[in-house]
Write a structure and sequence with these properties.
This protein is mainly α.
Length: about 400
């Protein structure tokens, strides 16, 4: 640490002196905090010799200083009496003894003024900080901190009283921003501090809808754990569990079911989550729904079961490719689609799906598989008893066709 100076007169502190030898003050400060105005006052009223060595207050009240050795004197030259004299009386200032004696009092007055000015500046700074904090909180800085994942800043702003549901300039909530950018720790912190998990995002949809649509399982879990409603619906009225099942998002479906979503709820078109998953060949999603109580024998408004739809899903790949003139049995998308439907049908049959169930006009899953010409699906249905068809003529024909296909293998 550097040498300290007197708070009132700026005199350098000598060793561990308690009082200033010039003015008797007991306050010491760092040189950089010594007021410029005080320096001017001291310089104007103190001779150069006094400024160099500092004053000493004698018993007579007059200021004495120790004369420094003349720097121009050669090192080997004998010292003069004035140089060896321990102290001599000087006039502190151009105005004589009385003016010199009053110099410390003038310095103390200047010091008090400086301290008052510094105090006023500090108060102004505090007011500016308070006003700046309010402005900072109003302009959505919490949403900005949540966007960048700055958990420390989020805690600080919340401690200052920031509203966890205050929207940023783009209309997004801090919770929505943290989830959109993958900052799950910040999202949990915001939910814990009062952020609304059912709030709407900038598009007007619930945050849970956005998380489900994007397939971010962790974000869905954070919202559900924070109190988001699992039965939330999208803008078209479709329950989120139906939408997630129709997209084959098994993790999202499982999170919704574990937090109370109904596995048998129907969408606007009357299809259940199980039907949506079966027709796209999402076997894992079918398995998850059945494990949580989905009805395997539920039907659409037209009368189709999930097993019917799993068989009809075999055509989705072929029809799509016919539209773009790319009917290729070796196409990867086409192959994945059909393989998924076969797996979904197998899961449904293992959980009690009826291979004899009739759809519209009395058709069975076996007949539809035969018309499509998928040998593996026909063999799967036959293995689970589909060969024992009902008495209708159409199903006899289907059984005969199935036997013919089996003979060609």
């Amino acid at each position: 640490m550097g040498t300290l100076v007197c708070r009132d007169c700026g005199h350098p502190r000598e060793a561990a002196a308690r009082r200033c030898p010039r003015c008797g003050c007991e306050g010491w400060i760092a040189p950089q905090f010594w007021s410029a105005d005080q320096r001017k006052t001291t310089s104007a009223s103190t001779p150069a010799a006094e400024r160099a060595t500092g004053p000493l207050v004698g018993q007579s009240g007059r200021v004495t200083v120790a004369e420094p050795v003349n720097s121009r004197r050669e090192a080997n030259a004998p010292a003069t009496p004035s140089e060896t004299q321990p102290g001599r009386a000087v006039q502190a200032g151009a105005g004589g003894g009385e003016e010199g004696a009053n110099a410390p009092a003038s310095g103390r007055t200047s010091s008090r003024v400086a301290r008052l000015a510094a105090g006023a500046a500090a108060v102004g700074m505090l007011l500016a900080v308070a006003g700046g904090t309010a402005l900072y909180l109003r302009k959505g800085s919490l949403a900005e901190a949540a966007t960048t994942g700055n958990a420390t800043k989020v805690r600080w702003l919340l401690a200052l009283g920031a509203d966890p549901n205050l929207r940023g300039p783009d209309g997004a909530t801090p919770l929505g921003q943290s989830l959109a950018h993958g900052h799950l720790g910040v999202a949990r912190l915001l939910v814990k501090r009062g952020a609304d998990p059912n709030a709407a995002g900038p598009t007007g949809e619930a945050l849970l809808c956005e998380a489900v649509r994007s397939g971010r399982v962790e974000a869905v879990e954070v919202l559900l754990e924070g109190g988001a409603r699992p039965d939330t619906k999208e803008a078209d009225g479709s329950p989120l569990v139906v939408s997630a099942a129709g997209a084959g998002r098994t993790g999202v479906v499982q999170a919704l079911l574990e937090h109370g979503a109904d596995p048998n709820v129907s969408g606007p078109d009357g299809t259940s989550p199980l039907m949506k998953a079966a027709i796209i060949g999402a076997a894992d999603t079918v398995q998850t729904l059945l494990a949580h109580g989905a009805r395997v024998d539920a039907r659409t408004r037209e009368g189709y079961t999930a097993l019917h739809l799993a068989v009809r899903g075999l055509l989705m790949g072929g029809l799509m490719h016919e539209q773009i003139a790319l009917v290729d049995p070796h196409d990867e998308f086409w192959k994945r689609q059909r393989e998924g439907c076969r797996k979904a049908a197998r899961v449904l049959l293992e959980h009690g799906a009826d291979p004899f169930c009739r759809g519209p006009q009395g058709t069975t899953p076996l007949r539809e598989a035969t018309v499509i010409g998928d040998r593996e699906m026909v063999a799967l249905l036959r293995a689970h008893g589909a060969k024992r068809v009902a008495s209708s003529e159409g199903n006899r024909t289907a059984a005969a066709a199935a036997d013919a296909i089996e003979a060609l293998r």
